């Protein structure tokens, strides 16, 4: 039974470690998109306008 308690504690610690790594990555700008704004003007945004009857 004590093995279950140890596994729960270890899994919670690992989950907290991943949460801290995720927060660190967000704050350090890991997911900032620097590429898309520079090529956005190349995308075709012109959609045909439907005529109203």
Protein described:
With 53 residues, the protein is mostly helical. The protein has a domain at 1-29. It is 57% helix and 0% strand. It is built from two helices and no strands.
Give helix and strand order, one letter per element, not per position. HH
Q: What is the general shape?
A: elongated
Please bin the fraction of helical residues: 55-70%
Count up the helices. Answer: 2
List low-confidence stretches: none
Strand content: under 5%
Distance between the termini: 74 Å
The counted number of beta strands is 0
Mean pLDDT score, rounded?
86
Radius of gyration: 24 Å
Backbone structural class: mainly alpha
Task: Describe the main β-sheet briefly.
Answer: none
Main features:
single chain, 53 residues, mainly alpha, 2 helices, 57% helix, 0% strand
Short structural description:
The chain is mainly α.
């Amino acid at each position: 039974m004590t093995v279950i308690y140890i596994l729960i504690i270890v899994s919670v610690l690992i989950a907290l470690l991943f949460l801290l790594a995720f927060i660190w990555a967000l704050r350090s700008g890991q997911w900032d998109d620097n590429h898309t704004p520079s090529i956005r003007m190349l995308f075709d945004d012109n959609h045909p306008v439907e005529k109203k009857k």
